[in-house]
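Comment thread on ticket #2218

A.B. wrote:
> Attaching the input chain for the structure job we discussed in standup.
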Amino acid sequence: MRVILLFLFLSTGLWGAANNLVQAAERGDLKRCTELIEQGVDGGSLHEAFRRAVENEQIPCVKLFIGHNVLLYGKEGFFKPLEVAARMGNIPLLEALISDHWINLSYGGSEEGIQAILCGHVEVVQWLMERGGSPTKRLLDTPLIHYAAMEGDNEIIRLLVGTYGSNVNAKKEYTNYTPLHYAARCGHLNTMNLLIDLGADASIKSWERLTAKEMYDEYVPPGSTIKPAKR
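C.D. wrote:
> Ran it. Output below, let me know if you need it in another format.
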């Protein structure tokens, strides 16, 4: 009976310390996080606290957990902090995460770049490219420029093509879609015009044997309001 009570006491204490660490990480209490780590916490608790620190943009705590060799894999699966930071557009957090090469960009920055593009963070896309990211590296056979065309983000398209040499006629494997096709399918007429101005070939056909113009006519109902470009 005493052994059971002792076990329950210790388990409760460890759970309490873990819970306190997560809460301290969320609010960015660096001193309290340091104290709790020194008292001893398990790897799973450290991972959860790290995840909460990243999601709440608590950079000093993030650096603390990195210094204690936090694991990226926890009970909820593999955590991708760089993607979270890119989605939030937080460059200082990105810099903290890649410091001392603790973690590297995924697929030449493609995963992080996609998140930045979907959220319209042109400055993050530029940051990724300047730190070794590749505009031509394909994640799921799709270059970054295709995602920018889907979103109708003209500023990111200009950046990728003008500064980093993205191919405006790059084709997605299997579908043969170019950025122009994606802009057409999503109804971004202004982005289509920009891509053509940048050298896109409007005669290229998709696997359905459709040009971008034909795709636009098929997917965008007549009389639809032209979607404005993001920038």
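A.B. wrote:
> Thanks. Noting for the ticket: DSSP finds 13 helices and two strands in the chain.
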